[in-house]
Every structure is written in structure tokens, then in C-alpha cells.
Design goal:
Layout: E1 6-12, H1 18-27, E2 31-33, H2 41-50, E3 57-61, H3 71-78, E4 85-91, H4 94-104, H5 117-134, E5 137-140, H6 146-156, E6 167-174, E7 185-188, H7 209-216, H8 219-241, E8 246-253, H9 259-273, E9 278-282
Helix pairs in contact: 1-6, 4-5
Length: 288
């Protein structure tokens, strides 16, 4: 019987966490291959047909170490039209990348005599721009931990049974800590009454029933959930048509502990009940 192969291509800026991402996919049960030449991509499918079941789910690392001309990769991808694949692009700000290279004292793959690390980072960003534009998912790792990266990746491709279906991730956050840079949609719910100022609720969070009851009892909450849910119902089929396998919706309040947590959970629930692969991440719930 012919095996069905599903491929995740992990790429992005040097220092943005591609190695860590590949290790995450390996933990998820993928066969991880780093720095694969684009010309060998089609061989993955052929190996799966005669190989073991481990080769059915493959995560492949590709970046500037394999060369700076991505035409060969794009041509290889054109030959995968019948194979579900997802391109995950890892990115970070120039300042964060520069700090990481400074701390680890690693050489940049594009480093050459006469160029500073900052210059090579800018050069790499220009080189990778066409690949970034082709990516299905862009993950900004500037301010997230390995655990948070793992949660994001698991939300993007938790099983790959249907790589063409759009997966939904709802992220609650606090604006005081900055908004998620890789979110597709950012919604501000600071217009809702704040439990922080209600006696007995300040030290609780959006998982506590008293906070849930307070937020959900507001007429504005009910109206917002209905209207924003309708907007997502309208947008998701469009994302699916554009072959977007992942949609991240970020819900922010002031501190990311009360309103945004309740709203993110409430928004995710009907989509999960409807059969969407849905995950919820509460980025700042433990911050004070």
C-alpha cells in the first residue's frame, strides 16, 4: 500500500531557533533532517514508499547553509503538489539575533572578511525574503522561551492528518509586555470592564470561575464574542482557500491575566467543538 508522506520544511534566519524547532518536531514524532539539499527533497517521498513508517512524517531543515539561490528549492516544491507540506519560517529581530550571536560566539553562516555580524544578518534577511514570502507560517522567536516555541509548533501542526486545513491558535497576552509579533490577528479587549479593579478578583486569573463569571456577565462581552466570532467564520474559509495551514489570533488586555484569558478560551471553544484543530496559549498569565 502506498504510504502518505507529510513534510514540514523548517527554515528562517540563522539564530532564530531552527535547530530547537527541529528537535521539537522530532519529539512530536517526525523524522528530522537538517540542512537537506533542495535537490534531495523529492527523494524523501521515494524513501517513504519503501522505508519504515517513521518516514511518513518528516521535518526538514533548510537555510542559507545550502546556498543563497532558492530557485532549486521552489522547483522542488512545485514537484510536491500532491504531497501535503508546510513551510515554517523562524524569525527574530535583528537586535535579538545580534545578541544571540554575541552570547554564543558562533560564526554566522554568511560571515566573510570585512563584514560585521550586523551586516551579515541584514544580508541574510534580504536573501531569505523570497522564502519568507512563500512561508505558510512565520514564527517570531524574539521574546519566547523554548517551551512557548514548542507550544506554537504543536499548535501549527499537531498531527498533519490534513495539512491543507487551517489550524487555529488563540493566544492571550498583556499589552504591557508587548503584542505577539507573529500573530495574524491582534484584538484589543481592554474596552471590557477590568476584573483587576474588582475586590477579590485581582489575585485570580482567567481560569478562575469568579473571573469568568464577571467577564462573561458583561453585555459588551456577549456582543463582542458574537460579532468577532462571525468575522472569524467569514475569514477562515478565505485563509483555507489561500492554503494557510495556521491562523494565530492574539487577544490582549492590560496584563494578560484576566480578560484576554477568558476571551481566548471562549473564542476557541466553538471552533474546537466544530472540529477545528484548535489550541490556546496564555502567554502572560503567570506574570505579575
Amino acid at each position: 500500500m502506498e504510504r502518505r508522506v507529510e513534510i514540514v520544511i523548517v527554515t528562517g534566519m540563522s539564530g532564530a531557533g531552527k535547530t530547537a524547532a527541529l528537535k521539537c518536531f522530532e519529539d512530536f514524532g517526525y523524522y528530522a533532517i537538517d540542512n537537506l539539499p533542495p535537490s534531495l527533497l523529492k527523494n524523501i517521498v521515494e524513501l517513504a514508499d519503501v522505508g519504515s513508517q517513521r518516514m511518513e512524517r518528516v521535518a526538514v531543515g533548510m537555510d542559507v547553509r545550502g546556498g543563497t539561490d532558492f530557485d532549486e528549492l521552489f522547483q522542488a516544491l512545485e514537484g510536491l503538489e500532491s504531497i501535503p507540506y508546510t513551510i515554517v519560517f523562524l524569525d527574530a529581530s535583528n537586535e535579538v539575533l545580534l545578541k544571540r550571536f554575541s552570547e554564543t560566539r558562533r560564526l554566522h553562516p554568511l560571515e566573510s572578511r570585512g563584514l560585521r555580524v550586523a551586516d551579515t544578518i541584514s544580508q541574510e534577511r534580504r536573501v531569505l525574503q523570497p522564502l519568507r514570502e512563500r512561508a505558510d507560517v512565520v514564527v517570531d522567536t524574539s521574546g519566547i522561551s523554548i517551551r512557548e516555541l514548542r507550544e506554537k509548533l504543536n499548535g501549527i501542526v499537531p498531527d498533519l492528518d490534513d495539512c491543507r486545513a487551517t489550524r487555529l491558535t488563540f493566544v492571550s497576552f498583556g499589552f504591557k509586555y508587548g503584542h505577539p509579533l507573529d500573530a495574524d490577528i491582534v484584538m484589543d479587549v481592554r474596552f471590557l470592564p477590568n476584573p483587576f479593579w474588582v475586590e477579590g478578583l485581582r489575585d485570580l486569573d482567567g481560569h478562575d470561575q469568579a473571573v469568568i463569571d464577571f467577564v462573561m456577565s458583561q453585555p459588551e462581552t456577549v456582543d463582542f464574542l458574537a460579532r468577532f466570532g462571525e468575522m472569524l467564520d467569514l475569514m477562515i474559509p478565505c485563509y483555507q482557500r489561500e492554503r494557510r495551514p495556521h491562523l494565530e489570533v492574539a487577544i490582549g488586555c492590560t496584563g494578560g491575566r484576566h480578560r484576554s484569558v477568558v476571551i481566548a478560551e471562549a473564542l476557541a471553544r466553538p471552533f474546537s467543538d466544530a472540529g477545528f484543530v484548535t489550541s490556546v496559549i496564555h502567554r502572560d498569565i503567570d506574570k505579575r
